[in-house]
Amino acid sequence: MNNSIDYVEFSQQSYTEYELDFQKKGIMIKGTGAYVIMEWERPLMEAIVREMDRANPIEGRDILEVGFGMGMSSDAIQSYNPRSHTIIENHPQIISKVQKWAVQPKRRKKDITIISQDWYEALPDLGTYDLMFWDTYADRNFWDLHKYVDTLAKEGCVLSYWNSNPNKDPLSGQFKNVSYIKTMCSPDKDSRYYLYDEYHIPIVRL
């Protein structure tokens, strides 16, 4: 395999077939040098969830989170005491991680639902939500996110998602009511998927 492989080369199907290497600094696609997510993102994920909460308080609300990764955003969401927390994850190895995360003693009484499949295949079975956060990897359907989210949104719903470029949001123009909150970040030197020292948090009001 080409060691210079980048995440954009993967289709959703092929990514889930690759073995992952769980390291202290992040989750790597084994044998590629490409990280799916890294520990440097933790304060960034906390900032994203904090801004979502400011836009629409999470406590007592129903939350949809697409992509578990290392559980950083999930931990942040749980700290705000949502009424329900639905997590969709499609990689078999990460599914095992989120299942263990959900049954830890401090979460056993929480209303946490894990859906183990691609989010666009799960759409018919999903409910409606007060807040939604998308952070997927090699997801070809992400680029058409605007086509799907309205049917999942309760009145006043707030959406955020991974914005891979602070100079031009990849989903720019898809949403009418979107604002951006600038925050600083410090990507790891081995991060290929994000190279900037600032991040623009998208807050979409649906």
Annotate the secondary structure layout:
Blueprint: H1 12-17, E1 20-22, E2 26-29, E3 34-38, H2 42-55, E4 62-66, H3 72-78, E5 84-88, H4 92-102, E6 112-115, H5 119-122, E7 129-134, E8 153-161, E9 178-184, E10 198-205
Parallel strand pairs: 4-5, 4-7, 5-6, 7-8
Antiparallel strand pairs: 1-2, 2-3, 8-10, 9-10
Give your account of this protein's structure.
The strands form 2 sheets. The protein has a 7-stranded mixed sheet, covered by helices on one side. Strands 1-2-3 form a 3-stranded antiparallel sheet, with no helix packed on it. With 206 residues, it is an alpha/beta fold. The protein has helices at residues 12-17, 42-55, 72-78, 92-102, 119-122, and strands at residues 20-22, 26-29, 34-38, 62-66, 84-88, 112-115, 129-134, 153-161, 178-184, 198-205.
The description of the largest β-sheet is:
7 strands, mixed
Looking at how many chains there are and whether they match, the oligomeric state comes to single chain
For the secondary structure, the number of strands is 10
Strand residue content: 25-35%
Based on secondary structure, the structural category is alpha/beta
Give the SSE order as H and E letters.
HEEEHEHEHEHEEEE
Our count of helices gives 5
